[in-house]
Amino acid sequence: MASTGTATFTRTRDQLITAALRKLRVLQDGQTATATQISDASESLNLLIKQMQSDGLALWTYQLLAIPCVANKYTYTIGPSGADITANRPLRLFPGAYIRDTTSATLPLDTPLTVIDRQTYLQYGSKTSQGVPNSIYYDSQFNTATATSPSTGHGTLYVYSNPMDANHTIYANFQRQLFDMTTGTDEFDFPAESFLALQWRLAAELSDEYGVPEDRIARIERKAKYYVDALEDWSVETAPVQFTPDWQMGQRR
Question: What SS3 state is found at 111?
Fold first, then answer.
């Protein structure tokens, strides 16, 4: 028989919650979860998703943001409404940034930028000296001057040197946040390869609440770990890694 030729299978929030409850034997064949069970499981699911952001960089959460330079402005907030760059507050900045000279629309010139850490940025000289930026540092801490709530907080990108004009745009590679699940028909901000890991992790998280015997909890946790480990092994870059000395701080005697 011919294959379907499609690869569009997906799961909604409530479908995955129902599957997790079946794994716990809370629901039998044909049963549906109550509104309370869905609400409680949804809270646990969103907490899990928030925690999974710290498990490591998922390939699908790469986000390339464009930051237009403004003359004599070397800090740029990134976040929801009110930030210089409107986006969900990025979690981390990764290498691979570049700056584009936009004076020529037909032949823009891209130059690599050095991504530095906080200590290196603080050790740099005058932060206000103007020139073409060559380094950037991202502080993911909530900028309380522009937002008071973590849910609407802004991160801050520091640019060195201080842009001398508005003829350049910085393109930086960030880790974005994973999206929340707010309604029963929401589809996950995950590829299909992650559905089993999510399903078993949720089952493991809910197992204590439903009084599952300890031996079954241990088995559920082992299956959850198996699928999570497999997902993390799959979600990695396949390009070769090269290591080069960092001479930016000069040689020491």
Answer: strand
Start-to-end CA span in the chain (Å): 73
Name the token pair of 250: 């000069």
- Structure tokens that stand for 210 in this block: 């439903």
Whole-angstrom distance, CA of residue 139 vs CA of residue 19:
39
CB distance 68 to 166 below 8 Å: yes
Whether 102 and 168 have beta carbons less than 8 Å apart is answered as yes
**pLDDT-flagged residues of the chain (< 50):** 251-253
Residue type, 15: Q
Of 68, 80, 225, 240, nearest to 147 (Cα)? 80
d(CA 161, CA 81) in angstroms, rounded, equals: 27
Element (H or E) spanning 77, and its range? strand 75-79
Distance CA 100, CA 97 (A): 10
DSSP annotation of 116: -
Q: Are 37 and 18 in contact (CB under 8 A)?
A: no
Residue 147 and residue 159: Cα distance in Å, rounded? 21
Domain boundaries defined on the chain: 13-56+190-234, 59-175
Residue 252: the pLDDT is: 45
Q: Bridge-partner residues for 234, per DSSP?
A: none
- pTM across the whole model: 0.83
